[in-house]
Amino acid sequence: MKRTLRIGWSLLTATAMFAANPSSIKLLNVSYDPTRELYQDINAAFAKQWKTKTGVDVQVSQSHGGSGKQARAVIDGLQADIVTLALSYDIDSIAEKARALPANWQSRLPNNSTPYTSTIVFLVRKGNPKHIKDWDDIVKPGVSVITPNPKSSGGARWAYLAAWGYALKKNNNDEAKAQDFVTRLYKNVPVLDSGARGSTTTFAQRGIGDVLLSWENEAYLALNELGKDKVEVVVPAISILAEPPVAVVDKYANKHGNGEVAKAYLEFLYTEEGQEIGAKNFYRPRLEKVAAKYAGRFPKLQLFTIDELFGGWQKTQKKHFDDGGVFDKIYTPGK
Amino acid sequence: MSVRKLSIELFLILATQVVPVKAQVPDPQTPEQKIQELERKVEDLDQRVRVSDRTRELEAESAADKARSGATVGAEPTGITIRSNDQNFLLKIGLDIQLDNRTFPGESSVPFTDQILIRRARPAISGTVYKYVDFYLRPDFGQGSTVLYEAYMQLNYFSRANLRVGKFKPPVGLERLQSDDDTSFIERGLPTLLVPSRDIGYQVSGDIVKRRVSYTVGVFNGVPDNGLSDASVSDHRDYAARIFLTPFLPNTNHPLSGLGFGIGASSGNDDGIPLPSYKTFGQNTFFSFASGVVAAGHRTRLAPQGYYYNGPFGIFAEYTLAEEGLQKGTVRRSIAFRAWQVQASYLLTGDKKGFTTLTPRKSFDPKNHGWGAIELAVRTGAFSVERGFFDYGFGTVATSPRSAREWVGGVNWYLNRAVRISLDYGNTNFGGGATAATGGNRPTERALLQRFQINF
């Protein structure tokens, strides 16, 4: 009888240990459009590191789309363990509407939970036939501009604000002149995609437009893929400092038992190895050592922040991008 | 050939036609300038066509997105539906209205009132949320009162173990479990008097062995026979279970595929549960308890049951034994009530009969030779209570008979799946008392019932 009990107890313990220490973990990272390549590299490196550290395999699935659209999907029930979106407002929405993570999520990781930065640059066709050098060139009549819809794309919101900020700085913070500038810009936009990757397809694959307002990393990726005989990157004198944030979605990560590994995954982005992978994918590193190493990769330009010119995302979203906001007033589809 | 290529070629053809005509007048442009101008126009045209193509592409993507996340409104024989395109959500609105006309012919039926009434008026809201959870809400506004008949949710994630919680029919009587629009008669038979109507509780059910066996187990508050309640009168619970076999069902071509049989049961303490009164086919009370009698002790119900359907023919039988604990003063006894019935039906129009809703092969539409389905049905059954009921003073022969025997014949005209017109004649004889004035038997009840019904 005692022997039977011992065997039973051993089996029970083994089962409990097996359940407590699964041999493989699955994470879902819901991200914005142009980060596919970055997170493919990050996932592979993190999985290797985690396996060495814990002996457990990690398989990270990726979901990509317009940042606003992705946030809506999580709010509607997409069970992301991690979100790596284009702007903090979209993660704020998840915190507020789905209560899937705390409101102070941004304070849980360094640099306001933005492990890397980026900016908005121009991608033009080889030889730059429309002679586009700076923001003033893209509002000229006859210049066709490709950019996604700011209602659904985080990159498009950064691009819109980069243009607005440029006009503000040029016109001594005259809001009316800035609005006029951005209105002229969107008159030159023939088609709005829902996300940054879609706009790159429109510009590069479909051959539409003279200039693509692009994430810096997306522009260099397109340059590498299409070749220097097809496109050129033009860096304006001034642009916006885009800070794409990352966060653990506590509600789902905890539900899946992935809280610890999800946190480690995001912390990995801040490590030297994570920062190097970011820099290689043309995301500007936060870590000074890595930033210095890759300084030649990132052109120097004057960068302003959203807090500096617009007073933060909550205010900006409400004024410019909510229904009935400035964008709805200045952009009429098909015109 | 793409629209873009066609447009470019058309433009070039037109351009080459125009150049010679213009060449007749002095032209300030050099040939190189003209070529550049043409190239610019071609490029502009090319961009317009590309934008148009891309816009259509994005519209198609957007439409596909909307199709995935949108919903479809439908009008189906089972109700008005709104269904999400991913099939995860469903809202269904249904309705059950029955207009009855009760007539009691003959001298013995003088005390009963002929009347036209709304027997049932039940709107139903049901559906599915997040694919695996069904819900159902159905009140009844018939006969001048508002009663909540059904309010439950059911988790269907595990096909062999569905969890239902709320207010619904406990798994005991076969005819009770049949929807009122599916029964062959306007009013249910005598065994249904002895089983619960609706109760609040939890239930797990499922089909196993390739749909050959279905099982249900549940725990409920406990309600009077043929009754329903929204409250529990004691700490005790009723436990109910049912197992039903359809051994030939998986093969629908098998001649015995319509055979089903099983047994339902419930057990529990019935302390304080209100005592019922039993009604005839004509819905007149024929059996009641003496004053001062209360439910006390144990109550057990057993209900063996079965049916067989084959083409237009159907036969249905059940027996119910209910042993109920009763107390009057210091006398406490368990009394047995028994009832049985056998029904047979035949569809003259050759439609297929079953336990669930009948859908006529041709709905009523005489211009297109559609008359619906016509069914003839007969049933007989009996009710009895053991002698101790009277001996111990739980009832008196002055108001309650010891037995009742009924036979009912009827015809149903199913105009379509939702609309039915029925006419039934029922005869109920009584034995062992129930006439206070003479000390004899309660007079035979003859009831002619007619119903118009819409149910979807």
What does this protein look like?
Chain A is an alpha/beta fold. Chain A has 17 helices and 12 strands. Chain B is mainly beta and 456 residues long. Chain B has 2 domains: 3-21 and 30-66, no CATH class; 96-118 and 163-455, Porin. Helices cover 15% and strands 45% of the residues of chain B. In chain B, strands 3-4-5-6-7-8-9-10-11-14-15-16-17-18-19-20 form a 16-stranded antiparallel β-barrel. A two-stranded antiparallel ribbon of chain B has the order 12-13. In chain B, strand 18 and strand 19 (419-431) form a beta hairpin. The radius of gyration of chain B is 34 Å and the shape is elongated. Chains A and B meet through loops of A and helix 2 of B.
SSE blueprint:
The complex is a heterodimer of chains A (335) and B (456).
Chain A: H1 2-20, E1 24-32, H2 36-54, E2 57-65, H3 67-75, E3 82-84, H4 88-98, H5 110-113, E4 116-117, E5 120-125, H6 135-138, E6 145-146, H7 154-170, H8 175-187, H9 196-205, E7 211-215, H10 216-226, E8 231-234, E9 238-240, E10 246-248, H11 250-255, H12 259-268, H13 272-280, E11 284-285, H14 288-293, E12 302-304, H15 306-310, H16 313-321, H17 326-330
Parallel strand pairs in A: 1-2, 1-3, 6-7, 9-12
Antiparallel strand pairs in A: 3-10, 4-11, 5-7, 5-8
Chain B: H1 3-22, H2 31-69, E1 71-76, E2 79-84, E3 90-103, E4 115-129, E5 133-140, E6 147-155, E7 162-168, H3 174-177, E8 199-208, E9 213-220, E10 238-245, E11 259-269, E12 278-279, E13 285-287, E14 293-310, E15 313-328, E16 331-347, E17 373-385, H4 388-391, E18 403-414, E19 419-431, E20 445-455
Antiparallel strand pairs in B: 1-2, 2-3, 3-4, 3-20, 4-5, 5-6, 6-7, 7-8, 8-9, 9-10, 10-11, 11-14, 12-13, 14-15, 15-16, 16-17, 17-18, 18-19, 19-20
Helix pairs in contact in B: 1-2
